[in-house]
């Protein structure tokens, strides 16, 4: 297969972990005889230094034209700590998702037996956790109209959803549940929010056309509680943009490291694959970032194009790194391996299964 | 001291747990020679059956005139599961807070050594957790303008904050921190939301007038993570209405039971005391609800009026119930004690310390 893959390293540890994914995809190319063309483009705070804009036009054009996008991370301390900054790196990511119509963020959270002890939650609670969060990604309060009064004393954000925004991701979630344990949990705040009531009404209707899928609803505050008390109860979680942000970050803690979790952002015509974690600017350049989340996201990329055997080869190499304890210090404090070494190990252990 | 206390039992297990608090306050009356006048009033779904309104005028008038309010819980399954319902019980609570100007919800989360093993989090993570959440209670998206398009296909909620709404609760939080471990953490989503940026700017300014208090900011998604990884890092958490809802419910899980946590809602002229937990309609009338959260909230009521010795007498009796294992099954599965029995035990063990 021939694929053109846009590489957006972004900020902080983004470029470092992305480089390890590229090693793995190059190993896949050789081992399985594919042709991947990689094209790098500036994105995030790093792009603002040149153009003043976190998503330059050329980067957007490349992403539109590429078959898939591998993305690192976005965000820099300079902007986080400055409430006066007019343009923020994160706006680039929001705009990219919007322009490409990447309306669904898909975030699998699956416990690795090797890291059971790393979880802050007790073993009996997290063992066998295997859930996936479908987070709406281009609507809701993150994209609603924002206002700041002229005297700067009042500010507002609008959370708005339409039935069509809700139903397109709801169908994805129910379809995914069909191939899994056949359960969808909608998370909202329908006892208080009008937009949540529209979610509940719309999804409850859609659920009727998937009679083999069991369907339940939870309020976000209760869902945040259940994620700590009994994450195994969840199969597919469906939720809006902000609730999905909170819940998926919270869910990622279950594994004891945000460095292990991949994610995909998909739309009708484009798909982007990225680690779950943020730009972690404090770790930038220190060769300590865990590349596994990024590497597993490249496996999701391969899967997206039907290259299941290839995706499994990456996952198998990652598992080998766990077994051999070739991991970064976030998952094993005593480890002496850095980002690069772990990336080398995994990419060198990618083999065709027989 | 003479106090007129409005009793709003509300829905679900509310009336049952409230009744135990009243037993304790009556014991305080006798033991310490005070005069408490208790006046009950309908509130929530139960009030809607009669008047169609969750907060009848007479109930509001009573609350305005009383010295303090003891409240049970609100919300019923009939309404939760019906997205078409025009009026919801929760609207009564929102309106009551608004009418009384109860702008700050104060939610202490303190680990009890007796229940360390009950936490879903590992012992070394939760031991010595002692934090308090200041949640803004009358502004933000729960109270913003709501719209539903005529064809019912688009819905919206507005999240709006003013500088004055932010600063009045911020000052409460900083003052509380002075008497504690001298740290305030603001939780917001300033990288995406305009209202959060106003919070960050306003609170950062206020922090400068409390030079002995250390001040830091966290994004809500990261805060939800930190609450699971290292809750001990927090002293006073300051946040908006919705983030406070999620974070405090999540924080409550640390103790392994939402049945142990009291809370207060305070304004300039009124104060209401209530258990942290909801109406738990599934448990209604089964005599299994944990009354401790409600009982500890009556201790917060006494403290509010400077009756520290009396408040401590309640807390001491609660601790005795823990030591003697006179607890409900939510905190000790093998317990055979019900709501009433636990309430009797605690109220009968309220004594003057010497
Ligand atoms: Mg996040
Ligand atoms: Mg809540």
Oligomer: homodimer
Total strands of chain A: 12
Shape of chain A: globular
Strand percentage of chain A lies at 15-25%
Major protein interface:
A-B, 58 and 58 residues
**Largest beta sheet of chain A, briefly?**
10 strands, mixed
- Percent helix of chain A, as a range, is 40-55%
Q: Give the topology string of chain A: H per helix, E per strand.
A: EHEHHEHHEHEEEHEHEHEHEEHHH
Shape-level CATH architecture of the largest domain in chain A: 3-Layer(aba) Sandwich
What report would you give on this structure?
The structure is a homodimer of 354-residue chains. The first copy, chain A, has 354 residues and is an alpha/beta fold. Chain A has helices at 14-32, 45-51, 57-65, 77-80, 89-100, 123-126, 163-178, 194-207, 220-229, 241-253, 292-304, 308-323, 339-348, and strands at residues 2-10, 35-40, 68-73, 104-110, 130-136, 146-148, 154-162, 183-188, 214-219, 236-239, 262-266, 271-275. Chain A has a ten-stranded mixed beta sheet with strand order 2-1-3-12-11-4-5-10-8-9, with helices on both faces. Chain A has a two-stranded antiparallel sheet with strand order 6-7. In chain A, helix 8 links the parallel strand 8 (183-188) and strand 9 (214-219). In chain A, helix 7 (163-178) packs across helix 8 (194-207), helix 9 (220-229) packs parallel to helix 10 (241-253) and helix 12 crosses helix 13 (339-348). The mean pLDDT of chain A is 94. The interface between A and B is large, with 58 and 58 residues. The complex binds magnesium ion (2 copies). Residues 245, 249 of chain A line the site of one magnesium ion.
């Amino acid at each position: 297969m021939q694929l053109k893959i846009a590489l957006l390293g972004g900020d902080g540890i983004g470029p470092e972990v992305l480089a390890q994914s590229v090693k793995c995809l190059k190993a896949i190319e050789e081992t399985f005889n594919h042709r991947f063309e990689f094209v790098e483009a500036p994105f995030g705070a790093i792009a603002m230094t040149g153009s003043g804009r976190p998503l330059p036009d050329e980067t957007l054009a490349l992403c539109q034209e590429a078959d898939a996008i591998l993305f690192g991370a976005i965000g820099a301390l300079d902007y986080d700590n400055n409430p006066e900054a007019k343009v923020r790196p994160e706006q680039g990511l929001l705009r990219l998702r919007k322009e490409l119509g990447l309306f669904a963020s898909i975030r699998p959270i699956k416990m690795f037996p090797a890291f059971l002890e790393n979880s802050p939650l007790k073993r009996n609670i997290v063992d066998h956790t295997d859930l996936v969060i479908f987070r709406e990604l281009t609507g809701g309060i993150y994209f609603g109209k924002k206002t700041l009064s002229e005297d700067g004393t009042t500010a507002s954000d609008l959370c708005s959803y339409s039935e069509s925004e809700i139903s397109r991701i709801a169908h994805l979630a129910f379809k995914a549940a069909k191939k899994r344990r056949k359960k969808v949990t909608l998370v909202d705040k329908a006892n208080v929010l009008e937009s949540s009531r529209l979610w509940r009404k719309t999804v409850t209707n859609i659920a009727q056309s998937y009679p083999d899928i069991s369907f339940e609803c939870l309020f976000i505050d209760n869902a945040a509680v259940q994620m700590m008390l009994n994450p195994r109860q969840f199969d597919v979680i469906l939720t809006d943009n902000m609730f999905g942000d909170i819940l998926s970050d919270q869910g990622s803690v279950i594994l004891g490291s945000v460095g292990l979790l991949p994610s995909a952002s998909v739309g009708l015509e484009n798909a982007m694959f990225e680690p779950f974690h943020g730009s972690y600017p404090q770790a930038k350049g220190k060769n300590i970032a865990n590349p596994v989340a990024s590497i597993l996201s490249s496996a999701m990329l391969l899967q997206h194009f039907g290259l299941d055997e290839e995706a499994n080869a990456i996952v198998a190499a990652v598992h080998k790194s766990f077994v051999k304890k070739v991991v970064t210090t976030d998952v094993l404090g005593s480890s002496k391996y850095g980002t690069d070494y772990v990336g080398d190990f995994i990419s060198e252990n990618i083999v065709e299964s027989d």
